[in-house]
Design brief:
Helix content is about 25%, strand content about 30%. With about 350 residues, it is an alpha/beta fold. The longest helix has 13 residues, at about 155-170. The chain starts with a helix and ends with a strand. The structure holds FE2/S2 (inorganic) cluster (FES). FE2/S2 (inorganic) cluster binds near residues 312, 317 and 318. FE2/S2 (inorganic) cluster binds near residues 311, 314, 319 and 347.
Length: about 350
């Protein structure tokens, strides 16, 4: 039996009710239907809280989901009280990791919805929503010879991915083509997760210095000179709080600082309008149409488009498209999501206000 034939058996509106207590996917799989991996979600396979206020999650990424380049980030979403909250987290893994897993670290922030939720509730088996890889920095395929990494607090994660990748490639070890140094700032050494991974970097040639700001103060030019006396010719990557950026600019001078590659992650969640329905702009086709609150798939078809689809009931993911802007409601759960640039299943998503979709 194929997924499309399932859609003829079940009317969309009644499906989930009739199939309670299991989701349609459960029955489809028990009938031998082969379903593609859900590209919109990742599964938590391990949870660790190695230092105070940091939740380390190991995620299984669905087949076909693009892993960000070292230094880049994944969009991660959780549902809290029916609303999707998304943030960006950089996997700490080297680019060579090939087991389909990715490790991220989430530091608790006062009042932070997602970090608090994961600190208290993350457990193996939990499903997290996935957005497209993002990030302003990424290690280029043509590796720079000399690399200086500067990070503070949560900024450790993209830098660990870059350092681990270069170390694993023999870039900075004996006979390697380049040099890699890393200055990381934390309140104290006890605040730094991934101690085991950090220990593996020095033998591979990465000059790492972790500076506890409570004891040693903040970034100075001397710190740069000590860890990377060759930094004037290096590519510099920065991820950390504003104070660290100000310190680096002061140490380097404005002209040199302009060359620094800086990662800034923002929550990026758009606002959610009142009321369902809105104007849907189909960006690829240039067609704009009003949608009173039906699915994006039905709205697109009513506007004369023919988006790819299969089951029309949220199972096969054939219809997945990128919602560039605006908010949509998942009609199966009622959850509303307003994160720009996320993949949605258009057969079970309806606009909440105006939406731009890549169709
Ligand atoms: S999930 Fe199958 S068509 Fe939308």
């Amino acid at each position: 039996m194929t997924a499309p034939s399932l859609s003829r058996l079940f009317s969309r509106g009644l499906t989930r009710t009739l199939l309670t207590p299991h989701a349609p996917e459960h029955y489809a799989r028990s009938l031998g239907v082969t379903l593609p991996d859900d590209p919109t979600g990742a599964t938590v396979v391990a949870v660790d809280r190695p230092v105070a206020d940091v939740t380390v999650l190991t995620l299984r990424l669905p087949d076909g989901v693009e892993r960000p380049a070292p230094g880049g980030a994944l969009g991660i979403g959780v549902v809290i009280d029916g609303v999707v909250h998304r943030r960006h987290y950089s996997p700490v893994d080297a680019a060579s990791r090939a087991d389909g897993l990715a490790t991220i670290a989430v530091r608790r922030h006062p009042g932070g919805a997602v970090s608090e939720f994961l600190w208290h509730s993350a457990s193996p088996g939990m499903r997290l929503l996935l957005g497209a890889p993002v990030g302003e920095i990424a290690l280029p395929d043509a590796r720079p010879a000399d690399v200086l990494l500067v990070s503070g607090g949560s900024g450790i994660t993209p830098m660990l991915a870059i350092a681990s990748t270069l170390a694993g490639e023999g870039h900075c070890g004996p006979g390697g083509p380049g040099r890699v140094a890393w200055l990381h700032y934390a309140r104290s050494g006890a605040d730094v997760p991934f101690a085991d991974r950090l220990r593996e970097l020095a033998p591979a040639g990465v000059a790492l210095r972790v500076i506890g700001t409570a004891e040693e103060g903040h970034l100075t030019r001397e710190h740069l000179e000590q860890v990377a006396p060759w930094h004037s010719g290096a590519q510099i990557y920065l991820c950390g709080p504003e104070g660290l950026a100000v310190g680096l600019e002061s140490a380097l001078g404005a002209e040199r600082y302009a060359d620094v590659h800086r990662e800034r992650f923002s929550a990026g969640t758009g606002t959610v309008p009142d009321g369902d329905g809105g104007t849907v702009t189909h960006l690829a086709s240039g067609v704009t149409a009003h949608n009173a609150g039906t699915t994006l798939l039905e709205g697109a078809e009513a506007a004369g488009l023919s988006p790819a689809h299969g089951c029309r009931m949220g199972i096969c993911h054939t219809c997945t498209a990128v919602r560039v802007s605006g908010a949509t409601r998942d009609l199966r759960t009622g959850e509303v999501d307003a994160e720009p640039g996320c993949r949605v299943q258009i057969c079970v998503s309806a606009p909440v206000g105006d939406v731009e979709i890549e169709l």
